[in-house]
Design goal:
The complex is a heterodimer. Chain A is mainly α. Chain A has a domain of 224 residues. Chain A contains 13 helices and four strands. In chain A, helix 7 runs antiparallel to helix 8. By secondary structure, chain B is mainly alpha-helical. In chain B, a hairpin with a 2-residue loop joins strand 1 and strand 2. Chain B is built from eleven helices and two strands; from the N terminus they run ααααββααααααα. In chain B, strands 1-2 form a two-stranded antiparallel ribbon. Chain B is 74% helix and 3% strand. Classes of the chains: A mainly alpha, B mainly alpha. At the A-B interface, helix 5, helix 9 and helix 11 of A face helix 4, helix 9 and helix 11 of B.
Chain lengths: 330, 295
């Protein structure tokens, strides 16, 4: 079997990520494991955004809100369990990740469903701004939620043994759990975009009017894609909460939604794996540029501008076979 | 007492409304004519406020500083349009969002380099610092009334410019069919640059006048930008009239959203959320806004 450049790139990068904890430990830089775990969590969120941004052509400018909702669900359930304060009736919440992470996925998916219900009535500029506005609404909701720390955020003790076998206190074990989730999301995403459902969503991006004329209930397809993306972002948020043991509204600040879009486009949108590369590149730059100058944003802003003007395909786009480069997503 | 509070808050709401209108007018024109999403509009508001702070230090006069800052930001607008944005008009919205997001990062950091990270306070100029008993029993700051008056005057001037002058005619023509007026021999590039810089100047005026009321700080334009988005989405993109009506509505709703829930014993969480709920409601019934300029 002959593998193309793209497949080689994906395999090599995933192998490098799998080897990272070992290398970091041997190099005596264990702190890098947690660093990269954080990056992988954002990569999951970026991949989920790519599902609607790249494949669905829906420029969602509020994706960080779903990430934040997922994180808050985990944080609040854990906080109640830790403090033994009743959440609903006599139920004290829980720190069983099976429950908390599932709840995070369901609640953020539900939120995305409701927001999509209103937002998807609009297109173009309106859609960009209404998703931004809804994200702001959620952001301010958590800012004003005094009972859960408001602006200051919420610290909590999470489950230390996920699924009864993975020790989340162990940096490497948790890292591999996150990497496995990322691979799972990538696999499921690949299956989804190549399925009939995924084809319909992509066709809506190309020409929604024609799809309607062909008899497809396009609104329902787009809404389903939007809710799935929101739920996946919520899963990333749940991992993030477990990773930090702390959560504050700042993770759903609107600039965070912008960052996610940057990751997707920087890596190559409409490629699923591109956003992983984008997240790695973006968060790496965010970490290293400040070492050179305190005012790194003055460099980073124009880089973004140039990227948009001259390198639309993104980093991963360079590795795509020629026929997929020119056609494909726009 | 409740009536006094009501009247006072109405004035506050109207004053926020006209400030939002100054922001929204420029943004909605850029949307309507160039079909361009400009996230960096809030940065121009910030630049206007910072320039006002500097000019009023240099000249010692706030009244002199405001026109200087507006002119300065007009020039910044010209430069930004020519260097960066011009190439983006033909691109899709995602590209515009990304590129202007980059501009926000750039401007926030540039302002930090030039003015430092510390917030600046501008004093209300002495001749405007008093209070006037417009409503018996509730003295109201003169400065805020002046802001309201200037905002309304500019709104009127803008209406005159767009409805009665030749440039305004071109702007309206550009909003309804830009290819056509290009084909008719109008220098559309120059028109675009002019419209953008005009929007920048209006944003700067909003920022300059907001300086003494709020704080002049980095990122001050960002929250304003999002409120402005709400305004133009409610008003209908590209419609100046819609922007005006929506700006007043949003200004009043936002102001009352901060006091009414607390008085009724409702959770104060609604305060910041009120305008977004309003926007969602409007879009649910009228997806193209109240005064849709184009189908």
């Amino acid at each position: 079997m002959k593998l193309d450049r793209r497949t080689w790139f994906v395999i090599l990068l995933l192998m490098a990520l799998a080897a990272l904890p070992l290398v970091a430990t041997l190099a005596g830089q264990e702190f890098q494991i947690a660093q990269f775990r954080r990056i992988l969590i954002f990569a999951i969120a970026a991949v989920s955004l790519d599902l609607i941004l790249g494949y669905g052509g829906m420029v969602c400018f509020g994706h960080a809100a779903f990430f934040g909702v997922g994180a808050y669900v985990v944080a609040i359930l854990n906080w109640h369990a830790g403090r033994e304060v009743p959440l609903i009736g006599t139920w004290m919440g829980t720190n069983n990740v099976l429950v908390t992470w599932t709840a995070a996925v369901l609640v953020s998916g539900g939120a995305a469903f409701l927001i999509g219900l209103v937002s998807l009535r609009t297109t173009g500029i309106y859609f960009i701004m209404i998703t931004l506005a809804f994200a702001q609404m959620i952001y301010f909701f958590f800012v004003s939620l005094r009972a859960y720390g408001g602006d200051d955020g919420l610290r909590f003790d999470g489950d230390t043994v996920a699924f009864g076998l993975i020790d989340t206190q162990d940096d490497a074990a948790f890292y591999y759990l996150v990497l496995a989730v990322l691979c799972g999301v990538l696999y499921a995403g690949r299956r989804m975009v190549n399925s009939r459902f995924g084809m319909v969503v992509q066709a809506c991006r190309e020409n929604e009017r024609r799809m309607k004329a062909l008899g497809f209930p396009t609104a329902r397809y787009k809404l389903a894609a939007f809710a799935i993306a929101g739920a996946t972002a919520g899963l990333a948020g749940a991992l993030f909460a477990a990773h930090e043991s702390y959560i504050s509204p700042s993770i759903m600040h609107w600039t965070r939604s912008g960052d996610l879009i940057v990751m997707v486009v920087l890596g190559g949108m409409g490629t699923l794996f591109g956003p992983v590369v984008g997240a790695l590149a973006f968060l790496f730059l965010e970490k290293t540029l400040p070492d050179y100058t305190e005012h790194w944003m003055v460099v980073f802003g124009p880089i973004l501008l140039l990227l948009v003007l001259f390198a639309r395909r993104g980093i991963f786009g360079w590795f795509l076979p020629k026929e997929e480069r020119d056609g494909g997503s726009h | 007492m409740a009536t006094l509070l009501f009247l006072e808050q109405t004035l506050n709401g109207l004053q926020l409304g006209v400030t939002l209108f100054l922001m929204a007018a420029g943004l909605t024109l850029v949307f309507g004519i160039m079909n361009m999403v400009n996230l960096a509009h809030g940065s121009l508001y910030m630049v206007g406020a910072f320039l006002t702070a500097t000019f009023s230090q240099w000249t010692g006069s706030f009244a002199l500083a405001v026109p200087l800052a507006v002119a300065g930001t007009f020039v910044v607008g010209l430069a930004v349009e020519t260097v960066a944005l011009r190439t983006l008009y033909a691109r899709d919205h995602l590209d515009q969002v990304l590129a202007t997001f980059g501009l926000i990062l750039f401007f926030n950091e540039l302002v930090k380099i030039v003015w430092g990270p510390v917030a600046i306070f501008i004093d209300v100029p002495a001749f405007l610092s008093g209070r006037v008993e417009l409503i018996p029993g509730a003295p109201y700051p003169v400065y805020r009334l002046v802001v309201l008056a200037v905002g309304l005057a500019v709104a009127l001037g803008l209406w005159w410019l767009i409805a009665k002058t030749r440039i305004g005619m071109l702007i309206r023509a550009g909003a309804s069919n830009r290819e056509m007026i290009g084909a008719l021999g109008v220098d559309i590039k120059r028109l675009y640059t002019l419209v953008f810089a005009l929007g920048a100047a209006l944003a700067a005026l909003a920022g300059a006048m907001a300086g003494p009321i709020y704080v002049v700080e980095i990122g001050m334009g960002d929250s304003m930008l999002i409120k402005t988005f709400v305004v133009i989405v409610i008003g209908g993109i590209g419609s100046i009239r819609g922007a005006f009506v929506a700006a007043i509505i949003v200004g009043v709703v936002d102001t009352f959203g901060r006091i009414v829930p607390a008085q009724l014993g409702l959770p104060t969480a609604i305060a910041e959320m009120a305008i977004y709920i309003l926007m969602a409601a409007v879009l649910f019934w009228k997806p193209a806004g109240l005064f849709a300029a184009r189908a």
